[in-house]
Amino acid sequence: MKSLVLIPWAETTWSIAGRLAGHTPLPLTDNGRAVVKSWADALAALGLSALFSSEEQTSVDTIHLVLSRVDIAWKVMSGLSEVDAGLWDGLTTDELKRRYPKTFKKWRNDPSSVCPPEGEDLEDAYKRLEDAFDSIRRKAEDRCVGLVLGPLACGLVRCRLESADSSKTHSMALERPMIYQSAEEDAWVPVGPLPDLAGAAKTGATIDAGQQIGRG
Hints:
CATH topology: Rossmann fold
Structural class: alpha/beta
Order of helices and strands: EHHEHEHHHEHEEHH
CATH superfamily: Phosphoglycerate mutase-like
Helix content: 40-55%
Radius of gyration: 17 Å
Shape: globular
CATH architecture: 3-Layer(aba) Sandwich
Number of strands: 6
Largest sheet: 6 strands, mixed
Number of helices: 9
Distance between the termini: 16 Å
């Protein structure tokens, strides 16, 4: 795999409310859909050749919007699903703080030290995502591919790519797509966020997607 784009979930009603989203089906808001459409145009400029995601509604909505702008392959992989929040699914940050103050603090500082009740252990999620990523890496060869991921899953994959400790999972979550370039066998260099084609058009700037991928 020559290069990789991590594509986060855009806005949902739960993300606006600050609710923890695990496996609950959540459609994108109108604003979220508009954001993904703007990403899709920039992804097309990068020469993206394939997309991978889970079957979760937010991921599938994202995929369909990207595919409406660019004709590329899409493969579903269950290993790319969001981390299961168990009984915490749908709770807001304030609710978690109020109900589980000590546990919430530990979970924010080091999420690998806490497993939500009936949820997924973070180390298990990391291994699942790592296996899925390694499978994609072997099959993609010299192509540029995109992975659509929920917040915690995205943070864990970034930890894997940047050799960071899983305690940084929360801070590694993304608000817009991030580009990575393969440096050697299994080393990845963060190139930067996906170029904003709309912003470039307003300023009259030109974005060279090939040059963007080639930096680093």
